[in-house]
Design a protein that fits this description.
- The chain has 307 residues and is mainly α.
- 67% of the residues lie in helices and 0% in strands.
- It has twelve helices and no strands.
- It is elongated and about 70 Å long.
- It holds the Pfam family ABC2_membrane_3.
- It is found in: Membrane.
- Its main location: membrane.
Length: 307
């Protein structure tokens, strides 16, 4: 669904961009003091972050379907259920939240999935299928620099998306944010573990499509299915127990659960499968998927598609 067509459409001149960044210090607006102090591989990776960001934001489909899509969905759910009243109230009628507030953590988790898995997997798959990676493999650009650019782009866009999503929820729906510093610290480590795990899984998943045309068809169903069973579009407590158990095998469920522990009142944990936020299990599962994504990426990544 996403691709950096803008950086691939001009032929051989575009290939020279990363290669030039690998060999020089003066390669455009990102040749600042930080880049000059870095070793060669890190310097070219730093410059490649800017290259990837420009390519990303020049493709409207990428910006909409992976950057703005969670905001659009939160807006739809917030408006559609605005008259439904609060959810999750205690027996005495207190402690409930609006539907917009309830869906905010799920959309925050889904945003990391879309940017880390969907965007990166389709982007790399298409670059490989179109021969872009094969040409890069013949340049001085190191694979380390290539992935610094990719991961840097993912981190920047994911952080910008999360901040924009939170701001949108506050401005449009008056969602109340946590006030405890501990919860913001929890959000920070959830974001860090979540986006790195999703990015590595995106790299690994990019090996599945056999062509650029099939990239979206292969990756999109996986992404959609995980969102529906992990408490993003449907209230997780309303799903059958067997489906909740199935969702527990995948990282999005744990990331969404962790996000709920940040943005929802503490009594909402009683609606979880184990009637607890289980933050230790959340961290353990995200670390396990991060390690699995790293191992799979190292095993499957190639500069060119296998015949």
């Amino acid at each position: 669904m996403t691709t950096n067509d803008a950086k691939r459409g001009a032929g051989p001149a575009q290939v020279a961009g990363p290669a030039r960044a690998a060999g020089t210090e003066d390669s455009g607006p990102h040749s600042n003091g930080v880049a000059r102090r870095l070793p060669g591989i890190l310097r070219s990776g730093w410059n490649n972050i800017g290259f990837e960001l420009r390519g990303y934001f020049r493709t409207p489909d990428a910006v909409f379907f992976t950057f703005l899509f969670p905001l659009v969905m939160l807006g739809i759910f917030g408006v559609a259920f605005q008259t439904s009243g609060e959810v999750g109230a205690r027996a005495d009628g207190t402690g409930g939240v609006t539907m917009a507030a309830y869906y905010l953590p799920g959309m925050a988790a889904a945003g990391l999935l879309l940017i880390g898995v969907q965007n990166l997997a389709t982007d790399i798959a298409r670059e490989r299928s179109d021969g872009w990676l094969r040409r890069l493999g013949g340049t001085p650009l190191s694979p380390v620099s290539y992935f610094i650019g990719k991961i840097g782009m993912i981190l920047v866009t994911a952080l910008a998306q999360l901040l924009l999503l939170i701001a949108f929820a506050v401005v449009a729906f008056q969602v109340e944010l946590p006030t405890e510093p501990e919860l913001w610290g929890r959000l920070a480590w959830l974001f860090g573990l979540g986006i790195i795990a999703m990015a590595l899984l995106g790299v690994a998943l990019s090996a599945l499509p056999r062509s650029s045309r099939s990239a979206t068809a292969v990756i999109l169903p996986v992404v959609l299915l995980l969102q529906f069973i992990s408490g993003v579009y449907l209230q997780f407590s309303m799903l059958p127990e067997w489906l909740q158990q199935l969702a527990s095998l995948f990282p999005l469920k744990w990331l969404a659960q962790g996000m709920r522990s940040v943005f929802l009142p503490d009594h909402f944990q009683l609606q979880e499968l184990g009637e607890s936020w289980d933050l230790g299990l959340v961290a353990l599962n995200l670390v396990a998927w991060l390690a699995a994504g790293l191992a799979l990426s190292l095993l499957t990544f190639r500069w060119q598609r296998r015949s």
